């Protein structure tokens, strides 16, 4: 699998964003969110093993002994987090139960936030997820020939309402093939949801299928991965921006988010872009191990001749500068993400969008000025994840605080010798300024009392003020004398004593 | 910061203080489209002279001198940028008192005289005045995202006499709007101007670099600070002049939400950065190689204590101010950034080029000045 196919391979990463296959923010999210769902059935042994694997190791114990704050955050989250809404299993059809089982099979960290969604959107979002996941599974499977794959991707949207449509062309190694083999469960549930949701899901499926087909077709001649920044953003648009658009339209249609979000499409685009770009930055080592590269050539070619050179020891400084440029690009999206989140009305929807965003800004901070991203997988600790989740399930103001905190952390790590030093600074400043404009800490009314008085500056006033100043100066002089005298005496005493 | 062409001013313009730091940038931008007839009034017109511009020497506090020049130059637009330099530290109290009197004389009396003469001479349609963003700020407390609703501060809330006189001058100018026939006025409040020819901001920073003070930082550096590249400030002045001329040509008064005359506008780069990072950017551009790990951070409280002790010691020794003053500590620890949406909306102002480009140009200019031209710039860096 060369870089060529990496484009294709990457597309699955798209769904990775909102609903990703590779877990983005550590398995912590899943297992922790899961722990609040003890009443939910755990249909597969896999889930159990994943959960069991989270039994603290000796290393964890030592780590949390020295990071009590993080331990506290974990306990806090486990004790206090209550789902906003819960599934009502008694009313679920057999097909729907099967859908939830697929959801649990295929998604790691989104399973819980989806299942906590408002009842109005619970099924539509679950079905939407499974459809995109299936699209992704087809796209990702290298055992399917391009002749078969391309029309399948492009026409996928026509199958989603066929109650008997299934597909078993996936290779036996494909771990999510079961969803496609039993896809009729999904289509039957799809047909039950409201028409206005169907139209949205249909439209996004069609566009994403076409986007994936284009990449799959170009995979042969696109030998060096993503070339320009424009390509990079377009790629992120197909795999993440479209998901953002789809869910936003669902939220607005369900009246759970401000319709103004649709008037400013750049906001939902940025939501997807920030998540996807952060993943691409964080996964750079792993992608390179798999001979894939999503960092645009336009960026890395400024620092090294070949992408893989970024990982060489002699290029450490160059690699760091290159990663700064990547972080800067993602960071510039943060302001619009905050504005987006301010437009979400319902708590479960807010949690759904805010948790990944907080994780993303924290991950971005972790990757910034961190050479470890070129040596291994990095991820935020479970303690930080818990703290972020607690903070992201309350309100926008608290999420703004998270963004401000991480913007400041990023700016503190910033190095003046880095070519992007000031741009990163400006980006952090932009985040702070935008928070200040959403939640002003001061207004003309909060200024000190009397600030709006206008004193005429005539000579009389001036003289009075001067007299007062002179008085104040005298006071200071006496104070100074007293202090110096005391200091002098102490010094003298010490000298004598010595 | 290659500016897109400024909006054309095809009439006679008089730039007061046109040989100063900001003034000569305005003159140079006015001359770019070259259909403007530009003249300059300044106390001394030996520095920063540009071709195709007429220069007049005069004191703006003198009614007769100003009237004479206005009658000669017959400007339709006046851009008033003249202001005495802010006194730096290391001065005796007598010098500081002298400076105070100078501020009042030039900023308040000078501006009042200019407004009166311009109003009475009859040909002036637009009067643009450079105010300062510090008129709403006491130079101590934090100011976050301040806009034009913030009131102008007066003593004792305003602790900087310089800012107080600027505030007074601004009121005189804005109060004169439509008072003298149909002469329109506007005031611009730039924040933290720096750029080529800068006599205060950048040279002070470069001096600190030369003294090897780059390994120190006062405060935690979470304070955002607005700066403005001089080219952007000059551009805003021209936009304001054009906007006043457009209003002047109208037969009806403009609506409140699009009014420019009689209004004040904050002007910045629109990119607040953390104070010490701006400073470090300047230092790094000048050649500093300090890594973030090498910086010794002095907390704000410790800094204030050290500064107080120093100030007292110096004061006892004869009324001089030391290098590290409480004011400096406070200045480098405070948040100060503004909202420039009003200027964006009503003047069509958009900063041309970012802070980084401005810093590169500025430091480059100083470096070239020091190496190439010798003389003058070296003196500036050393003295201030």
From TrEMBL, chain A:
CDD domains: Trans_IPPS_HH. Keywords: Lipid biosynthesis, Lipid metabolism, Membrane, Steroid biosynthesis, Steroid metabolism, Sterol biosynthesis, Sterol metabolism, Transferase, Transmembrane, Transmembrane helix. The keyword Nucleus does not apply. The keyword Lipid biosynthesis applies. It is an enzyme of class 2 (transferase). InterPro entries: Isoprenoid_synthase_dom_sf (IPR008949), Squ/phyt_synthse (IPR002060), Squal_synth-like (IPR006449), Squalene/phytoene_synthase_CS (IPR019845), Trans_IPPS_euk-type (IPR044844), Trans_IPPS_HH (IPR033904). The chain crosses the membrane at residues 476-497. SUPFAM superfamilies: Terpenoid synthases. Its cofactor is Mg(2+). Its EC number is 2.5.1.21. Belongs to the phytoene/squalene synthase family. This is squalene synthase.
TrEMBL record, chain B:
InterPro entries: 3Beta_OHSteriod_DH/Estase, Lipid_A_modif_metabolic_enz, NAD(P)-bd_dom_sf. Residues 14-289 form the 3-beta hydroxysteroid dehydrogenase/isomerase domain. It comes from the Eukaryota. Keywords: Oxidoreductase. Belongs to the 3-beta-HSD family. This is 3-beta hydroxysteroid dehydrogenase/isomerase domain-containing protein. The lineage of its organism: Eukaryota, Fungi, Dikarya, Ascomycota, Pezizomycotina.
